[in-house]
Design brief:
Blueprint (H helix, E strand, L loop, with lengths): L8 H5 L8 E6 L5 E9 L5 H9 L4 E7 L18 H8 L3 E7 L7 E5 L2 H13 L29 E5 L1 H4 L2 H35 L4
Parallel strand pairs: 2-3, 2-4, 4-6
Antiparallel strand pairs: 1-3, 5-6
Helix pairs in contact: 2-6, 4-6
Length: 209
């Protein structure tokens, strides 16, 4: 992949014009779960649609979208450098973060990544149940850098999904994928809630967690 033109959002906004070259969409319903497409619009096609399809009206979503007539690739800020303020503000109060990315493989598959192993396991399980091919973790798509946008939530751990072109071009599989991840997030939300209750109880009576 070509090197990024910009190493931060500050650099990007000094040259590019909001709502002419790029657009930012934020939907905050106060959920502890947020879905992000940091390279949406024409940067990594269809990732915005997938992110909103997963979030629906139940969970927060954030999309940074390229809307230039051409050369939207120049708007790509690599995930561990992505620092757009509205995204960071939303993530700061999010317990669970899932980022949606695109890779160029023709075969319909998903590469999982990120630091939240339990969340990744839940997502992979639901994807496989829905008949979605999940590849082994790939060195290119590890998503384990602490500064990766998927790991910038309150817990410091999240999940990253690299979705192939073959998958993104198959409307049926996209629908299955969105439903599967939504289901995985609901089960993860229950885990988060239980952990929060236990932690609060322990803090109240001064017990080790």
């Amino acid at each position: 992949m070509a090197e990024d033109t910009y190493n931060s959002f500050k650099e990007l906004k000094n040259t590019e014009v909001i709502n002419e070259d790029y657009r930012i969409s934020v939907f905050d319903v106060g959920s502890p779960i947020t879905i992000i497409a940091p390279h949406g619009g024409k940067i990594e096609p269809k990732t915005s649609c997938i992110a909103t399809g997963i979030a629906r009206d139940q969970f927060n979503y954030y999309c940074f979208e390229g809307i230039k007539l051409s050369n939207n690739r120049c708007l790509h800020i690599t995930s561990h450098n992505f620092d757009e303020p509205q995204a960071l503000k939303l993530l700061a109060r999010s317990q669970t973060v899932v980022t949606i990315h695109a890779c160029t493989e023709d075969k319909a598959l998903v590469y999982p990544g990120g630091r939240d192993k339990k969340l990744i396991e839940a997502i992979v399980k639901e994807l496989k149940t829905g008949g979605i091919l999940v590849a082994n973790r790939n060195l290119k798509y590890q998503g384990v850098n602490p500064n990766n946008i998927c790991n910038r939530g309150a817990t410091g751990r999240g999940a990253q999904l690299e979705i192939s072109r073959g998958m993104r071009d198959d409307i049926y599989k996209v629908q299955v994928l969105c439903g599967a991840i939504n289901t995985a997030r609901v089960s993860t939300l229950v885990i988060i809630f239980v952990h929060y209750v236990v932690r609060s109880f322990c803090e109240t009576i001064k017990l080790p967690q």
